[in-house]
Amino acid sequence: MTSLPNAKRQSDLVSLKTMTTSILYPVTGFVEKTFVITEFELRKLRHDFTELITRALQPALWLLIFGQVFSHSGAMHTGNIPYLDFIAPGILAQSVLFVAIFFGINVIWERDLGIVQKFLASPTPRAALVLGKGLSAGARTLSQAAVVYGLSLLLGVKLNWSPLALLNVVMIVVLTSTLFSTFSLIIACIVKTRERFMGVGQVLTMPLFFASNAIYPTEIMPGWLKVVSRLNPLTYVVDALRTFMLAGTTSSFGVGFDYAVMLIATTILVLIGARLYPHLAT
Amino acid sequence: MSDIVLDLQSLTRRFGPFTAVDALTFCVNAGEVFGLLGSNGAGKTTTIKMLTTLLPPTSGEALVAGFSVTTQAVDVRRAIGYVPQAVSVDGSLTGYENLLIFSKLYDVPRREQRSRIEEALEFMGLTAVGGRLVGQYSGGMVRRLEIAQSILHRPRVLFLDEPTVGLDPIARDAVWKHLIELRANYGTTLLFTTHYLEEADSLCDRIGIMHLGKIAAIGTCEQLKMSFGGHHSLDEVFVHYAGTALDSGGTLHDISAERETAERLG
């Protein structure tokens, strides 16, 4: 008899505990599942890291060939910063974009197998599946950032090495890749086949890249293109990267605004992606 | 043990003007092994997709383990396991990692994860290769790993879409041996589709033959054979109900996907 109140209190405690976990579950479950997806995407890299090497090649070529040529020709007027310094952050943003925009091909590949279907038949929140994949794409791009920093150092670009600036660069790169790979995932959900996807991907990369401030200042653009560049998220990515990567530069739009654009765009894209992702299984 | 675990009520799915699944109504009891047969395009895969919440029904309803596929999708997902027809494990992860990710996604308690995974590997005869990359597995091993992956959370119902397509007879027998043990050990209800009638004949408690999106016949294999006087094989019964060639469904994409699966596994 004496053990009864005790047992009751214990069962009360248990029910209280399950109650609070069930109230918080939508949030904790979402965060936890997102990281589970990211973790396993990254584990795949451990088994095959050739991808990290091929990723690093593209920014190297742009900096070493394109950057050198235009820097020597003096054709671009970038004010008081040397042209190579000017484009180093632009090339980083560009190489992140170019890899992220084709991220969707993996999703189509997983659909043609049965992997997407199996994930969708599990109780994982759809937004966690989408964001988890996007974040993993973000983490992969860090190898590109390392290459751009290494080459910039060799080429004499005046970099800002303060830990706070580096931390910001890491966050911006991960966020950018998440943003554009989620965009790519949305395209994959709509077109569904590899052939169509490659076509759309090709069509999108060039305007995103050239209608931005990545390799020339927007001041030299005709008026209409300037407007387009202001609507292009990549412009804000480059602005933020330039502010944190280079010593002694100021942001054109304010880094707070840059971050806001990136975060809002990513959130909207993840929500759209979560709505469209289940269509891959049908 | 006559709980009803699957209850389909006029379940219907249309794609434009084409009705893939037409007012399907039947029940499956807990612990039953139920085979869904029919020609390509008869609506088997569409039915499974609706029962696994991958495809919303156009009309009608289905209760899976007591939960509605239309309004309680997350509860349904927790209660079921699903082995799609195509290969659904990741070749660039090890067998163990493939199971680990799903044990986490299905909220298997952290301290039980390891033992559950080891049990599932053992159960499917994969203990020795758990640490190997799945890309190096044989077709039969891949299928067994997929089944291991879908039973980690002890589902009440396991859906398998042509689990033995593309496998050689030995691998096929091994898959079935494990599936039958699964039912014996955990009371898991199995619903699967197949084109191999001898499999259905020897393993199913009951079968349903689908034709043009409807159930043309349902019952035990004995009942179906007896309804034709008892001296006909299941093949002949099948041809009677599903025999007319289908012009709809079974598109080039479906068929090439099926052949690709067979190729990957074989």
CATH architecture descriptor of chain B: 3-Layer(aba) Sandwich
- CATH C-level of chain B: Alpha Beta
Strand content range of chain A: under 5%
What structural class should be given to the helix and strand makeup of chain A? mainly alpha
Biggest interface between chains? A-B, 25 and 37 residues
Order of secondary-structure elements of chain A: HHHHHHHHHHHH
Give the fraction of residues assigned to helices of chain B.
Answer: 40-55%
Q: How many strands, what sense, and barrel or not for the largest sheet of chain B?
A: 6 strands, mixed
Mean pLDDT of chain A: 86
Topology-level CATH name of chain B: Rossmann fold
Work out the strand percent of chain B. 15-25%
Oligomer: heterodimer
CATH superfamily of chain B: P-loop containing nucleotide triphosphate hydrolases
Provide the domain count of chain B.
1
Overall average residue pLDDT of chain B: 88
Q: What's the overall geometry of chain A?
A: globular
What distance lies between the first and last C-alpha atoms of chain A, to the nearest angstrom? 58 Å
Task: Report on this structure.
The complex is a heterodimer of chains A (282) and B (266). The termini of chain A are far apart. Helices cover 78% and strands 0% of the residues of chain A. Chain A is globular and about 55 Å long. Chain A contains 12 helices and no strands. Chain A is an all-alpha fold and 282 residues long. Chain B has a 6-stranded mixed sheet with strand order 6-7-8-3-9-10, sandwiched between helices. A 4-stranded antiparallel sheet of chain B has the order 2-1-4-5, with helices on one face. Chain B has 10 helices and 10 strands. Chain B has one domain: 3-Layer(aba) Sandwich (Rossmann fold), CATH 3.40.50.300. The model of chain B has no long low-confidence stretch (mean pLDDT 88). Helices cover 40% and strands 24% of the residues of chain B. By secondary structure, chain B is an alpha/beta fold. The chains are: A mainly alpha (282), B alpha/beta (266). Chains A and B meet through helix 1 and helix 5 of A and helix 2, strand 6, helix 3, helix 5 and helix 10 of B.
